[in-house]
């Protein structure tokens, strides 16, 4: 749950900075503002879903506030300095998230974590069948993380080639 609070920051920061750049230069973003803000919203939905499964305590919420504040400012500065590096780092973080969710699935399959019914927020958001379980939710979240990985590595590759994001169409509408 802690990681999901931080995971929503890069898409929001990247989308916000591209939005401001687009306004300053009177130019389109090639769909990248929407793609990055979609990523941020999707990560937020991961958090909202897992909050339904576990009940965070007050000190966990305080820790989230502190960690998110530090990470937001660090990522903001990092993105201004090097969007190429920032997107690459996020791509690698998403790869780690995929690995973590794969381990989560193993724990569910081994019975170490109870495979409870999926929260209604997850059923609505991912359009899951009504009888879905936590395992189904984790599979959907892991697929989202794989998409975020691919989008961020793609964005970094565009910068690596000396181009701007607006020169390559953003991958939109995955969700």
TrEMBL record:
GO terms for molecular function: alternative oxidase activity; metal ion binding; superoxide-generating NADPH oxidase activity; ubiquinol:oxygen oxidoreductase activity. It catalyses: 2 a ubiquinol + O2 = 2 a ubiquinone + 2 H2O. It is an enzyme of class 1 (oxidoreductase). CDD domains: AOX. Signal peptide: none annotated. One of its GO terms (biological process) is alternative respiration. Belongs to the alternative oxidase family. This is Ubiquinol oxidase.
